[in-house]
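BUG: 3D viewer hangs when loading the predicted structure for this chain

Environment: internal workstation, default settings.
Expected: structure renders.
Actual: progress bar stalls at 90%.

Input used:
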Amino acid sequence: MHVPNGFLDAPTSMATGAAAVVCVGAALAGARRELDDRTAPMAGLVAAFVFATQMLNFPVAAGTSGHLLGGALAAVLVGPWTALLCMSVVFLVQSLLFADGGITALGTNIILMGVTTVVVGWLLFVLLRALLPKRPSLVPLEAGLAAMVSVPAAALVFVGLYAAGGTADLSLGELAVAMVGVHTLIGIGEAAITFLAVASIVAVRPDLVYGARPLLARRELEIRATATEATA
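Structure tokens produced before the viewer hung:
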């Protein structure tokens, strides 16, 4: 989904660039509340993991391929604000060193693959965490479902941006069907990777998963309450 230079017109690229600057600035402030002795090291590992997996494509259909976007995964592991910073760093390095996504389209790519996937993925994860039984073992499933939805959501945002400033004469209906259809399949792969990555960490160190911490705190309170009742 990396958008190259010139795919969107200058006003649209400038608008997404300005929006990306605002979002990254807000993330810099918000990350202060998330970063601690566990989240800070994880942030570097998450950025490296997303960068590496985005370089690996898997076949989807009709000669197309996809790769992990990673926004939902990053949000669950290190929190939404820190996740946006991780994603932004990844896109910056890809753009400057690997020509993966244009420099003038950097803001667009941050909005599409960073902000959209992080926001949609995190909000859906929090909703699922509230609705489903409060067990850390369900966090990988919740993260996988959130990741699956975040990918076609980003595709829809791209269609909206293209409607506002696309430089080629394409049918928006056909573009929407193609983008959402392909990225729904990519979302399934995203869900599988996210589920496996989160499950592997939850199995050994659930306290390192930012999205699981409220459940762990709740479990500790229940255990302490039970111990107090037994003592009384």
